[in-house]
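Posting this for the archive.
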Amino acid sequence: MAELRIDDVSYVDGAGSKVLSNVSLHVADGELMSVVGPSGAGKTTLLRLVAGLESATSGEIRVGDELVNDVPPHKRDVAMAFQRDSTYPLLTVGRNLGFGLEVRKYPKNEIRERVGAEARVLGIGRLLRRMPRTLSLGQRQRVVVGRSLVRVPRVFLLDEPLGNLDAPRRQRLRSEIPRLIKGLGVTALYVTHDQTEAMAVGDRVAVLRDGVLQQVDRPRMLYDRPANLFVAGFIGHQPSSLIRARLRAEGTRAWAVVDDQRLLLGPVAGWLRSQVGRDVVLAARPEHLHETSAGRVTAERRLRVLVRRVARLGTDAYVTCVPAPGTCTEGGKDTELVARFPAHTGVLPGSVIEVAVETEGLHAFDPASGSTLHHGRSAHGD
């Protein structure tokens, strides 16, 4: 197929607002890259630039060896699936799925085989003779996804393709879509606002914020080694808890002072030596905050907290709490921590407890710039 290169691309809209700023991505031939970010990050705009529906203000977009900035959309050989319903209302589901192949004069038997195969995977095999108006919203969305997948363009662009599906279908297609794309060997960009979906689908994940690329990496690396404070707080089923602290030294040991509490970080060495006396933001994953009864940390690595909520999810309970009496962040709100406890925990909202902190796993960031000062040890043992 073809690699996709986006080199130093910026886009300014008609109102003069800079939607994308100097974005560079290299999607390898056959790679499926997720693009994730909050609303307004520029994710859909990026897809529209690749598809040719918008023109880049500056920078270059290449599909294979071809510079496509000035190539009209229909000549780019790029397929795009949207979240919204874009079925052809006067064609059956089967004709919808095969329409692109019909236009390209594919043999009827090949169209029939491809449509049948995609319909079975998407769970709409019994709907091929139905009209779109008779389908549910989720069924119509599967038709839209299938119409893009049934043809084999140089590049697939998928914009929130699972947004209208119920949870079981969405979960299933998170694994099916990568399998289908890999089977076809097609290069793909997959846009979503869902961090879990982005990490489940993509070989690599690109994180956008306010039109600026924050980090591109494999899912595990995004989780274990975030490039900055934003990525640490954004990525993950349960994002990192962000703790504002001041670093102090007592003798040969360094401490993080959180309001009127202290956490032992370790010897005054390495990154800690240059940061003593300064404010930092510590990022803790839920797996680094747990019950003190687990006995894995000393009293010097515990925080006294007030429990706000307890969410029991399968084998784990996620306990949302705040340091007691409370730490004030830059935004003036109490720092919320999310700790992972066993599902059978007896902790209740309103109680004051101690949470054990595995300080070796904490990341540290500059509170002003958000840049990384230190990466902690990952829960995978790295």
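The first helix runs from residue 43 to 51. The radius of gyration is 24 Å.
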